[in-house]
Amino acid sequence: MKKSDFLSQLVSLAKRRGFIFPACDIYGGLSSIWDYGPLGANLKKNIKDLWWKSYVESRDDIVGLDAAVIMSPPVFMASGHLEGFNDVLVDCPACQRRFKLEELKKKGEVSLCPECGSEINLEKNMPRSFNLMLKTFLGVVENKQQEAYLRPETAQGIFVNFLNVLNTTHKSLPFGIAQIGKSFRNEVTTKTFIFRMREFEQMEIEYFVRPQHSDKYYHYWVEERFRWYQEKLGIRKENLRLRQHTKEELAHYAKACTDIEYRYPFSTTSEGWKELEGIANRTDYDLRRHSEYSHKDLSCFLPQEDKRIIPYVIEPSGGVDRTVLAVLSDAYAEEEVRGKKRVVLRLHKNVAPYKIAVFPLLKNNPGLVAKAKKIFELLKNKYVCVYDDTASIGRLYRRRDEIGTPFCITVDVESLSDDKVTVRDRDTMKQERIGCSQLIEYFAGKFQV
Ligand code: ATP
């Protein structure tokens, strides 16, 4: 299948089945803003829960944080965002579309509009800086004093709380602060589904270390995060790669940076390899700058050496939405079964929105309905389950395949006499008869981590 077809199939499935909808859909949508439907909300929550469990709940060197989205301007003067978080843009005089100068240069057509083909005269249509941060005003008066910004990354919430966390948790180096939350960027390049959004979610860790240990922890986090996507989310290794930033690409304060890239279904010259997460050694830049601007001491005491230092920070920074897109792309498959097309999402059981679906073979048979509902009641406290009798069995299986439910249970007339049900595996489509009293044990084996 062509990459562009693949993406449109995925976008269509996401909408049709309730994973992802355009925001404000009934009013025509809002550019680069998307809403998650019932299945998407479950899928996204599963990804975030796995991340939180891996890094906050299962470790004693990382603590969690949930900082505010709205932040005051001095934060972004210190971080450099108010001066440097700019793209240089050029407006097309004919169609009024805006393009990144960088991207026009990459195409080698600085003077032709990629959208309408009109000539862009760089003398007249001067490239100008465009700040990617979204601004708002607090209170009723819209003046300079009331200005505030929606954070463009969750990281700044961590840095401005460094002292509060240190004073309340008494952690010593190395330790990390982890956060999952929304970030906002007034992106210019759009049209890439949930890959580039104006409102998106990030999962970030700021891991504070002694400067002389920063290389060691940088490599540790690159490997750890690369492994996590494969082991916890089941993303195929051949669709993931590491790309180290060249010296020219590195931010001026960074010592090193590696992107974890996923082979997204975009038809681009880079075969779709795009950033899923970045892991950077940001040195002591952030804490030093916030220290200077806030006049607060953001250093740590090292008891053995009897001195204070500003720690270096290693930052694994991943996007939740780009992870959702990678998981969906990786799982989507079309195959032919007995001459008919079957669409199946082979989602890893950890992330599947529903784990088990229970159906009565005949919805007009009260005995079957009652037994199916009883099984649903039995399993629902352990697994996210669903009871469904809204279509014929064939159609229910097809729907479940499309949304990646790993197992379906069907209660048929025989079940009333032998107390057994049919369990169907999404991937192999094999069916097994399992005794109702064995179901808990059976699924404990199947969902074992
Ligand atoms: P890109 O080069 O693709 O714009 P970036 O280098 O600006 O990404 P970072 O600032 O490193 O991205 O942000 C960390 C992570 O946050 C990214 O790896 C990505 O997963 C996610 N992210 C950043 N911008 C967006 C966006 N506009 N929409 C969705 N996710 C995003």
Q: Provide the β-strand percentage band.
A: 25-35%
> What is the CATH superfamily classification of the largest domain?
Bira Bifunctional Protein, Domain 2
CATH class of the largest domain: Alpha Beta
Q: What Rg is obtained from the alpha carbons, in whole angstroms?
A: 26 Å
* SS summary, helix count: 14
Helix content: 25-40%
* Class derived from helix and strand content: alpha+beta
Provide the spatial order of strands within the biggest beta sheet. 3-10-11-17-14-13-12
Bound molecules: adenosine-5'-triphosphate
Mean pLDDT: 92
Q: Give the assembly state of these chains.
A: single chain
Measure the end-to-end span: 33 Å
Question: The biggest beta sheet, please?
Answer: 7 strands, mixed
**How many domains, as an integer?**
3
